[in-house]
Fold this sequence. Notes:
Number of helices: 2
Structural class: mainly beta
Amino acid sequence: METKQKKTKVVVSLLALAALCVFSLFAAAGNLEPSGPPGPTMKTLDEVEPRIAIQSLSSSATGLYIINEPGSYYLTGNIFINFKHGIEIGASNVTVDLMGYEIRSSWDIKNPGPNLNFDGISIAPGNDNVEIRNGSIFSNNSSEGGVAYNGFRYGIYAADSAGVYCHRTRVIDVRVSGSREIGIRLRGTNNIVKGCSTEGNEYGINTRDNSLIVGNTVKGSRLTGILPGNGSTIRGNSSTDCLVHGIYCGENCILEDNVVRGNAGSGIVAFSGSIVSGNVAAGSGNYGISAYSNCKVSSNNAYDNGFDGINVRDYCIVSDNTVYSNNTYGIKAGHGCSVTGNNSSENTFYGIYCGDGTSLNNNTASGNSGGMHTGLGSSIIGNTARSNGIYGIHVSGNCLVNNNTAYNNTTNIYAPSSTMGTNHAP
Length: 426
């Protein structure tokens, strides 16, 4: 009986202790009902980046809206203007957000006005670090007597004067069409043009040295699509149906993963020291890819071009390209080149045609009028030439010809005055 009473007391004590703990928790928590609606916890966009409406700015004799102070500016609606710049920028460290709106111009050809050098957006010389993004610049077209006239001279112009330039200009996600001359023209260095599109301008995109041109679409330029300066990177762009070249760049440029189709001149022209890799060049009236001396041209596709698929000058590296159905040579290389691992087929002339001192290794040429040709003092090792119309492998004197396979050609191997190793040429 006594034991039973003790157990009862223990149980009662534990229950009392549990009740005390629960009461203490409620007391510490206080009133759980909110006293009112929650207040704002995030800053507005204007608090993070104070911005000024462009339509609130004053005008001048040369510009509809004038930006003379650093800061962030934005459009609140479309702009229509003739014979003045739509927006004129006279300060560094400026951001212009077009907010998806359009700057538009037309040109009355019967009364062209006193000022023909008017642009959609004009940046005065000496103003650096300007960004323009997210909108359209459009010029109406008109014609008289078969002559077409357009509105803006340039869609966007970072100007220069007497050696003074605008550097580090950025143009992002802007559409420019119908300009009389150039869609986007940036005359300083270290510029970025990204995600833009141009159509029906005289030139599409024109920048100076050390610029980045990435992910743009250029169509139907009346001259050349993209013209970058020396040391620029041109990556992931499309330049099509231009009346001269698709891309025409300076020295020491990097051209990667671009698509150039249907241009009346050459698809890509790269000056000395450039790297041309992973591009598609098709349907050009001239060369698919043309590269000057000391360039590296690799892993490109070049087909259906009016002249050579790939044409390079001296001391170039040409590797792992696929070229076919070009109207002259598949690959034509100058002196002292290394031509390795390419596949050239169904071209009107030779699949691969090289100058003196060439290293021609591990290539395949098939179905061309001639397979492979090299000049004096070359090495021809490990290649395959099959079903070509004249020669499979045709070399000049003093060459090393070893470990090649040639069959079903009119003449499989022709190599006078050369050192012959072990070749398979039945």
